[in-house]
């Protein structure tokens, strides 16, 4: 009879777990919609958890968001696409840490609040300071506009077409793909990204070859190759879509290429102000209290100042415009922050929701849910940090 060994059991368990993970990866890679169904199921489950288990509800929702990034990495790997573009290994690890911290911060704070108010605010301070330091370091390594989230989620609707068309062209040449996506003007290489170089001299009997247009008159790089000695004209194996700017832009959006560097010190200073805004707001909150208008006003001024400087920049990229729009819309949430909410807007917001709750079904159901959860949202989400 064989003796039982703990190490052998652990090894067997690891092998089985690895097999299950491999099978799961194959299923998700074969049908990306499975990943979305699993994430939506977890998020839906977080809403049906009883009110007494707010921590468990937040934990399930945070795990669903973190799982979404894991699915994105899996789908990129299955399509032969790089997980990061023009990002150093140190910044990659810091981005993963920042994503995990941003998704779990509410859960950590709610657990700490069960012990005492002191534990809660020590935890909040540690989280806010850590996030600020991580974002400042990322800003130092690459002085560009900081997005939220710092890792762009994969566009699942764009993935099937763009990723399939790009998997072969990217192949294993990740560096070439990254440099192509990071530059605004990219000239195509005469090297075939699918099958290596264009046909060599041996293919047509010797001599060097030149690329030509379909009529054989142009000497500029094209998709036709002509041998010098025998004059044989062969169509290049290089994919013409590699030179398509729209395809490169679609691939750049799919991979979440970092935003272009900020051109002036004024823009970098504006980005630093925006990054430090949650920390300054928290310090003023702890110093002057929740009933003081100073933290609210100072945070709003920092937001508006940063937006004003960025909007004065000309020639913004699509990613920068999207981030600017997101920050602009978030200014509306100042109406739900204390003390503005407690003293000014609470009466109007609740009055509007009560009127909507008396209307037809879809609107009334949403309004009643907002009336029920608004105190919790205001207490948990809108009092200190909002990136």
Which secondary structure elements does this structure contain, and how are they paired or packed?
Blueprint: H1 6-30, H2 33-47, H3 54-78, H4 89-113, H5 117-141, H6 159-170, H7 174-182, E1 209-212, E2 224-227, E3 233-235, H8 245-255, H9 265-288, H10 294-311, H11 318-330, H12 340-356, H13 361-380
Antiparallel strand pairs: 1-2, 2-3
Helix pairs in contact: 2-3, 3-4, 4-5, 5-9, 6-8, 9-10, 12-13
**Overall geometric form:** globular
As a whole number of angstroms, the C-alpha radius of gyration is 27 Å
Helical/strand content category = mainly alpha
N→C terminal distance:
61 Å
Unreliable parts: 168-173, 184-222
Q: How many individual β-strands?
A: 3
Instruction: Tell me the number of helical segments per DSSP (H or I, 4 or more residues long).
Output: 13
H and E order: HHHHHHHEEEHHHHHH
Described by strand count, sense and barrel closure, the largest sheet is: 3 strands, antiparallel
